[in-house]
C-alpha cells in the first residue's frame, strides 16, 4: 500500500511540474505565408516555449522552402536561402549568422522526436515579418516587398550592417489608469497628444508584435476591453508601419483634454501612468497642427481570398488596389496633420463589414476605397469614375479627388456618381470609392499597372484629401 501511495504521489507531482510548453504544443495551429495558409501535416504543431514560437525543422525545409542541413554529430543545423545562412545548435542560445554570434531568446531543442527552432528568429533573418495571433493560434509570415527602387539600396557595407534588431511586444494591458506594454527590450517611445477626441498616442519605433496575448485581426490591429475603466473610452493597437516596423498604441480618453502622464520602464514593461500621481508627471507639448490631426482610412479593395476582377492580361484587381493604396499611404505619412490608417497593407481579406467597423470605430474624418473597374464583355470601356453615397461631405470629397485623379490618369472622365455601396454607405464620415480605370481595357490596364502613373494617381488622391480637409 505504501508503494502504491508513493507512486501515486510521484505521478501527481510530475503532472503539476510539467512545463506549460507541453500543453501549448498540443493546441492546433496554422502558419499563413503572404496571405496563404500552409498545408501542414496533421502532426505538426507550433509550440510556445518561454514565450517563443517554435516549429519543427521539417516545416522550415518543406513548407518555407529554405535549404536545411542537419549535422547529427554536432547536433547543429544550417538553414540557408540564397546568400543568407545561419547555424543553430540544439541546447545553445547562440546562433551564427554571417559569421557573427547572435543571442537567442530560446534555444533549439528536441521535442516529440523532432528538432524545433524559433520561427521568429529564422524567418526574420531571412527577411520575413512575423506576427502571432494568440486567439486563433496562427503565425502570419509576410515576405519583404519587391521594390525596384534602387535608391533605397544601402550605400555601403557599413550602412547595410547597421540595422538594429527588432523589439517585440508580447502584452498590452490597461488597468487603474496605467497602460502597461511588455516587450523583450527597451525602446524610446514617442508620445503625443491629439484632440477631438482627446487621446494619447504611443509610438514604439523599430518594434513589432511578438507572441501577443491579445487578439489581432487580419490587418494587424486590435482593441482592449476597457469596460469598467471610466477614464478611457478605447485602447487600440496596431502594426502602424512595416517599413520600418512600428507598433502604435492609442489611448482614447473620456475627458475632453489629454491628461498628464508619467512614463517609466520596470524590467521589460513600459508603464504609461495617466493618474497624475507618478513621479515627475509631464504634459506632452503639442503643436496646434498635432491637435488638429485628421484620421484618414485608406482601403485597398478586395484582397486575400477575394481577388476582385481579373484584368485583360489575367492580373488580379486586388494587387493593383494594394499597390496604389500603399503609395497613397507612403505620401500621407509625410503629412504631419494627417494620421493614416490602412484597412490592409498586405494580401489579406478584411470583410466589407470589418472595413466599415474599423473606420467608424476610429471616428475617422475620411474614408477612401481604391478599386479597378472591369467589363470583360466590353473591352472598349475606359475611364475613371468616383462614387459617393448621399452625404454632402462625401460628394465634396469625391469632387476634390476625382478632378485630380482624372488628370493624373489621363483617361476618360466618367464622372462622380451617387451609388449605394456598403463601404461608403455604412461609414459615418466623408467616404468615396474610386474606380481608377478599367483593367479590362488594354490602354487603361497599361496605365494602371505603371509605377509612374500609380504615383501620379496617389498624389492626386492625397491632394484631393488635403483640399477636402483644408490642409495646405
From TrEMBL:
Keyword Signal found: yes
Protein's UniProt name: N-acetylmuramoyl-L-alanine amidase
GO CC terms: outer membrane-bounded periplasmic space
Keywords on record: Hydrolase, Signal
Organism in which the protein naturally occurs: Paenibacillus rhizosphaerae
Domain MurNAc-LAA positions: 356-466
GO biological process, one term: peptidoglycan catabolic process
InterPro entries recorded: AMIN_dom, Cu_amine_oxidase-like_N, Mao_N_sf, MurNAc-LAA_cat, N-acetylmuramoyl_amidase_3
The keyword Signal is annotated on this UniProt entry: yes
Lineage: Bacteria, Bacillati, Bacillota, Bacilli, Bacillales
Amino acid at each position: 500500500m505504501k508503494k502504491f501511495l508513493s507512486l501515486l504521489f510521484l505521478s501527481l507531482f510530475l503532472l503539476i511540474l510539467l512545463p506549460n510548453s507541453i500543453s501549448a504544443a498540443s493546441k492546433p495551429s496554422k502558419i499563413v505565408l503572404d496571405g496563404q495558409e500552409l498545408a501542414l501535416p496533421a502532426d505538426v504543431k507550433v509550440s510556445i516555449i518561454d514565450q517563443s514560437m517554435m516549429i519543427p525543422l521539417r516545416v522550415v525545409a518543406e513548407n518555407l522552402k529554405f535549404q536545411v542541413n542537419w549535422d547529427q554529430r554536432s547536433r547543429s543545423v544550417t538553414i540557408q536561402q540564397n546568400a543568407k545562412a545561419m547555424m543553430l545548435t540544439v541546447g545553445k542560445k547562440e546562433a551564427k549568422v554571417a559569421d557573427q554570434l547572435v543571442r537567442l531568446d530560446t534555444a533549439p531543442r528536441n521535442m516529440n522526436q523532432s528538432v524545433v527552432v524559433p520561427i521568429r528568429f529564422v524567418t526574420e533573418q531571412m527577411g520575413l515579418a512575423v506576427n502571432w495571433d494568440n486567439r486563433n493560434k496562427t503565425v502570419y509570415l509576410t515576405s519583404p516587398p519587391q521594390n525596384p527602387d534602387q535608391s533605397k539600396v544601402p550605400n555601403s557595407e557599413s550602412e547595410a550592417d547597421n540595422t538594429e534588431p527588432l523589439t517585440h511586444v508580447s502584452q498590452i494591458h490597461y488597468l487603474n489608469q496605467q497602460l502597461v506594454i511588455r516587450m523583450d527590450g527597451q525602446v524610446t517611445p514617442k508620445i503625443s497628444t491629439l484632440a477631438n477626441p482627446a487621446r494619447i498616442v504611443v509610438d514604439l519605433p523599430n518594434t513589432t508584435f511578438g507572441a501577443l496575448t491579445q487578439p489581432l485581426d487580419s490587418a494587424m490591429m486590435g482593441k482592449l476591453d476597457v469596460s469598467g475603466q471610466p477614464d478611457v473610452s478605447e485602447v487600440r493597437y496596431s502594426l502602424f508601419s512595416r517599413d520600418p516596423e512600428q507598433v502604435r498604441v492609442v489611448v482614447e480618453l473620456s475627458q475632453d483634454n489629454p491628461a498628464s502622464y508619467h512614463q517609466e520602464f520596470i524590467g521589460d514593461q513600459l508603464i504609461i501612468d495617466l493618474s497624475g500621481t507618478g513621479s515627475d508627471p509631464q504634459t506632452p507639448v503639442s503643436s496646434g497642427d498635432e491637435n488638429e490631426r485628421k484620421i484618414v482610412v485608406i482601403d485597398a479593395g478586395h484582397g486575400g481570398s477575394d481577388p476582385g476582377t481579373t484584368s485583360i492580361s489575367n492580373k488580379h484587381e486586388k494587387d493593383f488596389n494594394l499597390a496604389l493604396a500603399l503609395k497613397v499611404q507612403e505620401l500621407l505619412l509625410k503629412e504631419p496633420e494627417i494620421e493614416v490608417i490602412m484597412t490592409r497593407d498586405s494580401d489579406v481579406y478584411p470583410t466589407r463589414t470589418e472595413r466599415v467597423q474599423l473606420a467608424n470605430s476610429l471616428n475617422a474624418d475620411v474614408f477612401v476605397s481604391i478599386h479597378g473597374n472591369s467589363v470583360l464583355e466590353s473591352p472598349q470601356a475606359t475611364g475613371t469614375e468616383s462614387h459617393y453615397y448621399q452625404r454632402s461631405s462625401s460628394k465634396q470629397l469625391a469632387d476634390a479627388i476625382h478632378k485630380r485623379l482624372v488628370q493624373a490618369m489621363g483617361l476618360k472622365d466618367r464622372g462622380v456618381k451617387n451609388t449605394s455601396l456598403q463601404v461608403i454607405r455604412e461609414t459615418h464620415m466623408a467616404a468615396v470609392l474610386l474606380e481608377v480605370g478599367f483593367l479590362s481595357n488594354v490602354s487603361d490596364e497599361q496605365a494602371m499597372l505603371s509605377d509612374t502613373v500609380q504615383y501620379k494617381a496617389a498624389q492626386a488622391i492625397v491632394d484631393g484629401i488635403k483640399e477636402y480637409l483644408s490642409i495646405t
